[in-house]
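User: For a reading group we're discussing how well predicted structures match intuition. Take beta-glucosidase. Before you show the prediction, I'll give you the sequence so everyone sees exactly what went in.
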Amino acid sequence: MRRTALLASAALLAGLLPWAATARAADEPAPAPVDRFEGEVPFAAQPAESIFTWGGDTDDPPALRLADRADAPEGGKVLAGTYNISGYGGFTHDFAATAPAHDWSDRQGVRFWWEGRNNGRKIAFEIKDGGTNGEASELWTASFTDDFTGWKQIRLPFTDFAYRTDYQPVGGIDHVLGLKEMWGYALTLPAGTKGDFALDDVELYGRADQALRASVGTDAPVRPVAEGATAKVGVTVATTGEAPLTDPVTVTYATGDGTATPGSDYTPVSGTLTFPAGTASGTTRTIAVPTRRDRAAEPAETIPLKLTVTGAKAPAETPQIVIDAHGLPYLDAKLPIRERVADLLGRMSLAEKAGQMTQAERGAVGQGADIAAYGLGSLLSGGGSTPTPNTPAAWAKMIDAFQLRTRATRLQIPLIYGVDAVHGHNNLSGATVMPHNIGIGATRDPRLARETGAVTAAEVRATGIPWDFAPCLCVSRDERWGRSYESFGEDPALVESMETVIQGLQGRANGKDLARGDKVLATAKHFVADGGTAYGSSTTGTYTTDQGVTTVTREQLRDIHLAPYREAVDRGIGTVMPSYSSLDIAGDGKGAVKMHARGDMINGVLKGRMGFDGFVISDWNAIDQLPGDYASHVRTSVEAGVDMMMVPYAYKEFSTALADEVKAGRISERRIDDAVSRILTQKFRLGLFEHPYADTGGAAAIGSPAHRETARRAAAESQVLLKNAGGLLPLKRSEKVYVAGSNADDIGNQTGGWTLTWQGASGNTVPGTTILQGLRKAGGNVTYSKDASAPTDGYDAGVVVVGETPYAEGVGDVGNGHSLSLSAADRAAVDKVCAAMKCAVLIVSGRPQLIGDRLAGIDALVASWLPGTEGDGVADVLYGTRPFTGQLPVTWPRSQDQLPINVGDASYDPQFPYGWGLTTLTPVPKGGTATLRALAARAAVAERRGDDRTGRALVTEARLLVQRKTGGHLTQAVSAPFADADHLLATGRYGEAVGKLAQAYRAA
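Assistant: Thanks. Here is the predicted 3D structure of beta-glucosidase, as structure tokens, for the group to look at:
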């Protein structure tokens, strides 16, 4: 292609385009253009070939233009743009999705001209390999640094590109950079500061020679071996495009200097492996290194295996053979855990202890070399941080590869890997996704809560993960909070009753079940009072409620927010996570203090008064919100009682700063020893020292019919029937039913946030059954029109499924782009269907929605919450296979002006009170005031005898009497005692509960 820029004068060329940058060898092929930016590729989107922008939020995508430039390196235009990125952002050139992919395999690399700003910022350049199109392909990344001024040609050989481990759009194709099916490229621009850029002439250059196309690797970077056994290291040759070798490849090997002693610990070896021309890609040869046995107990010892490669790219790392630690007391599973911990702790250096207190994100450690280099104690997957492909086998393989890295450390302390499995193993595609906690609270079924925890634990542990950042024990006091659906409810007594989920996750309270292949270490979060933050008190970005300030008296703190943690400690909870929020206790003189700095609460109350013996894990980068410099962040949080720090990308800085603070005497060694002892205790309880790798024996049950049946039952029991005029529900299968609404056929909306990704997403995101599909599978005579645009004549009943789209944490705060009102489209669908026929409205949401202005025109109203993947459970109650039994776990307000509104408030006049929930298929008892007096007397007797089953049944009978009498006409005089009764029921005061219901009955 003609290069018009090269027609300029020699003087101009000397000033702008150093000839050395564009010259090529005589036998090198001419460059192949990818982008000239002369207008040949439009700003558009797939399926056309196009350039488009993207970003983390609406402000992050850059602004692009084709700019006329006299100094353009090629042609007369360049791609120019401006950006101001707070999260992430950049732009992409995708080749047409409807055209064949491009073959780049005969080229050495990609190059382009970049106008430097000399800002020292790193720019990532990705290429898209394999798959069906540019948005369904593997991402391989390299980078360059803008440390120059003016135009410079950047060259990126394909051998410099690495597979992205922190994000892949659809999952890996084969994890091999084949270069035969390429779909384009993308640039990620620097975040944090405003900037502009100019880019020109993206092209392929050079000829791929074998030294660039062939590579040598080993079967693992670390090869553990028992003392006295022979280590066998596989050495494999592979080629880009999987073609046979065109020239020989030789690998000269020799054992090198490590911590093992040649001659006494192992027999040194050396030699040469030859892969002749014509050798197939993937061929493997084996190097054997014999080790020697002695009688001494020893830590692990390393033997580097040095490889010198000719004719191919050498491995990125020198493989290490590791003679396993042996004979040391902490490795003896027969000893008590306390003794094992003490022995191991006594052998650890300060750096090793600091490593145990450090948790990094999987995407930050790449292939994992830093796990051994920094002696990391833990890794996690943040929301949406998954392996590719996102399968159980890939999770187990990934975690085993990370765990393998710990074998190269002196003491071989295993990692503890954590994940937010908050409603099932929600990061895993194909897992069983349960209703969110607010729906579990609506079931009022502690046994079911335990079962959902057991299913979650089994699916999580089967993928190699022993630690779950759940359950959330927040007591949600304001539905404007974006995390309100993570709460079991607004009443601490209800939250406590649902803590059976801890036994589902962990097993017995004494920790004896933690080593089982179907149990995980659980986490009570977020300590303490995260559910009490005041609207408008948050200072985090655009959040309004989340991470804000909770202002309480000591009595309120004790009775409302601390109560669930007392229960959790009694149940043997293994870890506790402090809240991002601040706590302001009236009269203590401290003001609002971030929970990660409140030693009075973590050390004093949690560990001291409550006797918590597990360890405290920080929230994601939470210490960065503390005042002062980084050293003070570390010092303050550790001294406050935080034992392990979740520092996803700052793990090097944290572990270094922690050790420095101890050396300086600002953090005591005793405090470090306490923290590490707590962490090691849980690792021993989990059996990780004996079985560090994944036990995938339970993988076949992931997403199984039995597990989905538990989720289906939970979905059914979570449905709360708020209104049922004329007995519209349950529906009859003979009825013609018109189904409409945005959430009727959207599995993404139905599962909500924390589903595959942190924020979740609308659409067909996970395997499961939508509510519409459930209705059809139940045998219903169903017609569906999402927007109710189809004719409405001739139907017996309508079902309109409306509500929220997914969100998580403060992103979902009311006032931060969210409200408690239905969307215009949802309101229109409700109005049209309910005007044409008898209608049931289902609200799929993480919190109550304001529906009072339309309530009179709705025959039946159901709070469906976020029911998870099993829409069949919703259909079960709609068609009467199961009865409606759910009760409101939170108060349903009449208006936003009432918020916050909670059971026990002095002024309490909601749309529907806490505990409200009509039933079907269950006969409502007959009787009136006299019946209620009799029920109260019998309930009091049951209470004295400790007969909980009878007491609960008697209160339920009284509740049904009250609900029937009200006929849906709820006043303050009815709602307040009605809600109080449900709180009394949860606290075991059955006689008083019936007395309150009698008061509500008289007022009805």
